[in-house]
Write a structure and sequence with these properties.
Blueprint: H1 5-8, H2 14-23, E1 27-31, H3 35-47, E2 52-57, H4 58-64, H5 66-82, E3 89-96, H6 99-107, E4 112-115, H7 122-138, E5 142-147, H8 167-177, E6 181-184, E7 201-202, E8 208-209, H9 215-224, E9 230-232, H10 240-247, H11 261-268, E10 272-277, H12 279-295, H13 302-325, H14 336-344
Parallel strand pairs: 1-2, 1-10, 2-3, 3-4, 4-5, 5-6, 6-9, 9-10
Antiparallel strand pairs: 7-8
Bound molecules: glyceraldehyde-3-phosphate, 1,3-dihydroxyacetonephosphate and zinc ion (ZN).
Zinc ion binds at residues 94-95, 190, 233-234, 276.
């Protein structure tokens, strides 16, 4: 049986992005897989009064179970209401790779989907994205497309210019597909190892300093599609505090490096309306779990290590919303259909 996100009381991303563009901030999109991550995201965003996007990859959907996930999102909505908060959120499919997966998410209550055709040739990317847009828009679900390929650690980001989004492609892609937002590649990548040490310099303490993002490409894209919402994937900072906590409690993350916060602040003030964060959340959780289990080797109650992990993640989320993305305090700007109906009732 299919369910509409409108019955779950959540919103699509359209109004969020409009407000984020006007207010020069970005909506955080936090990936989650389990209960503690969901609680931390919801409580962190309620406390900082930030609109947010709950983001689910296809791997997370398999891990958490698609039916359970729908009820988790519904539960998140009810939890927010029970706290007398007016924070709105979208439920978003991250990196959907087929029409069938996007359709299944629309049918099970997602309010937004990404169709990532960036690995296909342009014609195929346009065709697939347009097919998803046509179906999703019939249900008032927003769609994110992608142009340009995010490099992994295997790729040489500096030399392989073709991985960056080509600004001359964006107008045609946006017009031909009808997408609501566009993910671009300007030098970020997924995971905790965004750059090879050889691509970085070192500061006077020997800490790796990554090459700057390609803001010149972002600016050219903004000029070609003014006011169009841009999405930044691979935008974790790989926060050194968590890498150190992990390494000093039995972990081994050598030369992990991410996107410095000041560059994300700059991006959030631009047409970048959505910033994707998964790895920093994973690092916060892992650091807290490792610390508890190292300091209390006899502990075997999962609540005693997942609880502190949840607290650490909640603090991280409040920090990101307040100090990096500028989304804190913006909750009242997103009215949403559910609240509009409540107010007129
Ligand atoms: O973009 C990738 C996200 O970090 C999701 O990762 O596929 O391991 O859930 P995942
Ligand atoms: P990070 O790995 O930098 O957190 O990026 C997450 C992401 O882009 C999810 O789509
Ligand atoms: Zn991504």
């Amino acid at each position: 049986m299919s369910v509409s996100y409108k019955d779950l009381g959540i919103v699509n991303t359209r109004e969020m992005f409009k407000k984020a563009m006007e207010g020069q901030y970005a909506i955080p999109a936090y990936n989650f897989n389990n209960l503690e991550q969901l609680q931390a995201i919801v409580l962190g965003c309620v406390e900082s009064e930030s609109p947010f996007i709950l983001q689910v990859s296809s791997g997370a959907r398999k891990y958490a179970n698609q039916t359970l996930l729908r009820y988790l999102a519904q539960g998140a909505r009810e939890l927010i209401q029970s706290m007398d908060s007016n924070v709105n959120f979208a439920l978003h499919l991250d990196h959907g790779d087929t029409f069938e997966l996007c359709k299944s998410c629309v049918d099970s209550g997602f309010s937004s989907v990404m169709i990532d055709g960036s690995h296909h040739p342009m014609d195929k990317n346009i065709e697939l994205t347009a097919q998803v847009v046509e179906f999703a828009h019939e249900h008032d679900v927003s769609v994110e497309g992608e142009l340009g390929v995010l490099a992994g650690i295997e790729d040489d980001v500096v030399a392989a210019k073709s991985v960056y989004t080509q600004p001359e492609d964006v107008e045609n892609f946006v017009k031909s597909t009808g997408v609501d937002s566009l993910a671009i590649s300007i030098g970020t990548s997924h995971g905790a190892y965004k750059f090879k040490p050889a691509q970085c310099t070192r500061d006077d303490k020997g800490v790796l300093v990554p090459p700057p993002l390609r803001f010149d490409i972002l600016e050219e894209i903004e000029q070609r599609i003014p006011g169009f919402p841009i999405v930044l994937h691979g935008a974790s900072s790989v926060i050194p505090k968590y890498v150190e906590m992990i390494n000093s409690h039995g972990g081994k993350l050598d030369d992990a490096v991410g996107i410095p916060e000041e560059q994300l602040r700059k991006a959030a003030r631009s047409a970048v309306c959505k910033v994707n964060i998964d790895s920093d959340g994973r690092l916060a959780v892992t650091a807290a779990v490792r610390r508890v289990l190292t300091e209390k080797p006899g502990e075997f109650d999962p609540r005693k290590y997942l609880g502190p992990a949840r607290d650490e993640l909640k603090s991280l989320i409040i920090h990101k919303n307040k100090e990096v993305l500028g989304s804190a305090g913006r909750a009242t700007e997103i009215f949403g259909e559910a609240r509009a109906a409540e107010v007129t009732a």
